[in-house]
Amino acid sequence: MDASTMPSSTPGVWLCQPRARIGLIIPSVNCMSELQFHHFAPPELGIHVARARITGAWRRPIPEMKQEIAAAVAMLADCNPDLIVYHCTDSSMREGVAGEEKIVEIIQGETGIQTLATSALVVEALQALAIHSLVIVSPYPNNDVIARYLRERGFAVPHDVALGLSAQAFSAVTPGRWLEVARDNARAEADGIFLSCTNTTQIEAVAEIERSLGKPVVNSNQAVLWGCMKRLRHVLPPAAPDPRLGILMTRQSA
Length: 254
Known about the structure:
This protein is α/β, with parallel strands linked by helices. The protein is built from nine helices and eight strands. The chain has helices spanning 33-40, 62-77, 89-93, 96-111, 118-128, 144-152, 175-184, 206-213, 220-231; strands at 20-27, 45-52, 83-86, 115-117, 133-138, 156-162, 192-195, 217-219. The chain has a four-stranded parallel beta sheet, with helices on both faces. A four-stranded parallel beta sheet has the order 6-5-7-8, with helices on both faces. The longest helix is centred in the N-terminal third of the chain and has 16 residues, at 62-77. It is globular, with a radius of gyration of 18 Å. The two termini are 32 Å apart. Mean pLDDT is 93; it is low at 1-8.
C-alpha cells in the first residue's frame, strides 16, 4: 500500500497529500459547508476555507464588498488551490449574471486562479440534469433573488417555498423536514427541485427526495462539489458516484 492509498485512520500513518485542492470563500455565518465538503469529498481532494462578511448585516453591493472579498481570497490563495469558489448562493445570485461575473473578476484579478461561483455551478448542474422548470426550496425569508437570477438564466420557476428563517436557524432544519417540504411543494410541471442554500442539511436529503418524487434534485453544496470534482477528474482517481448525493453525481461529462 503506497502513501496515497493508506487509510488516514491507521495509527502512525500520515494523512495522504491531496492530489488536488479547492478553496471556498464562505459567509462568516456558515457552519455547514466545511463539515459537508470534508464528509462527502474524496480523500484525495483537499478542502480549504476562508470566511468573509458578505451576507446579512454585512451585505453590500459587490463593489463595496471588493476589499472584504479580496482580503479573504488573498489568504486562501496562499495554500495554492487548483480552484477557488465564491460559495454563497444568495450573494452570488443577488446582482444577477453581471454581479456574478464581477465577483469572479475580483477574485481572479487578485489570485490568477480559476474561479467559479455557486450560482454558475448550480446552473451547470440544472442543465446537466435537463431541468428547465423547477421548484425552489430554501430557508430564506423569501426566494426573490434566487428566482430572479434563475429566470435570467432561462429557467422557469412555477413555484417556490421559503421557510422564513434567520441565518442562525438554517442549520437546525433536519433532512427529514427538507424531504417533507419538497414533497408538500412538488409541482407536476416542474422537472426537478432546487434546494437553495450552502448552510443547511439539504444535501443529506437529496437522494431521498429523488426517490420520493422521481425527479432530480440539485442543492448548492452538492452542485459545487460536483462541479469541482468534474473539473479536477484528470488528477483525481476514478471513483464510483456517491449514491447519497443523487443523480447529479453520475453526470461527469465535460
